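Revision sheet: structure tokens.
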Amino acid sequence: MRIINYILIFTVLVFTSCEDDPLKKVDVSESKLEVRFDRFDHDIFNADFTDPARTGQQLYQKYRGFYCDYMEEILAVGDCMPDSNFALLQGFATDRDMRALQREIDKIYNSDKIQEVNEQLTEAIRRWHHFFPDSIAPNVIYMNSGVVYSVYSRDSIIAVGLDFFLGPQDSIVKLYPNDIFPQYFKDDMRPDYLVVNAMKDFSWWQCAKSDINTQSSTLLDLILQQGKVMYMVDALMPMTEDSTKLNWSKEEMEWAIANEWNVWKELAKQEVLFSTQFNKNKKWIDFGPFTNIGAIPQDSPSQLGIWLGWKMVRAYMKENPSITIQQLLAEKDSQKILKAFKPEKP
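Predicted:
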């Protein structure tokens, strides 16, 4: 009898939790939206190099703007001139180290793994289209970025650098130079971060990137901008663990929850919430081994400012259930959002 009661209580708690979260009630199972997936990495590394000009034109015709972005911004091999510059791209695709990296990508991201990732991204992008039906639903392009970009988003694409999601213990990842990729960076190169990082980057590009002048913004503006992006990830991936959304371990998540009041006191003591000292403010949102500011200890996770901004936005949306995501993104009064937040005391 007691076991049955426990089951009933658990069921009620789960049901109530889902009912309390309007984002979890969104159902896109009937969506007809088709998401396109392209393997740009395969098109490059399997290209016919006997006629570089012809191959360059074919790739340009297929990928258009992204081909130019890849040439000019990601690899930075030169201006986008498919007829003449494909020879430069050929040098990348025939490089011994890059070909070894591509073989590792193909080993990790075999057809079954890519299918799994495709399904997760399709779900998230269909949810994006639910919330933003008038926007362009992005296509997904998988690339070998030469260890330059983990995700590269534009209005109609999400380009994912598979070379950033091979796993921290991968033999190739271990060879990434430590002065560029310290261990804490490699620890984040996990396959299970691929989808959430892709949707964070796309949300940032779509919702926040042009919203704010970081050099003249207050710390509150900065962390709420990040909090809005994280709330968008809530909307796109509501069943994903909060720790995964932040690229934190469960232990780091537990530390943040247990020390929320102390973190808030440290932030208040510094009197920086309304400061526009960008170089100091960004320490609260910088990626690193820990949040390296003031009296925050080294056993803290990094980017505690993003976590606080996210909690502020969540509190604001819970307090104002009639506000849409579009209205949230358009809200420029940071103090209005801040008023809803009450840090948890121990």
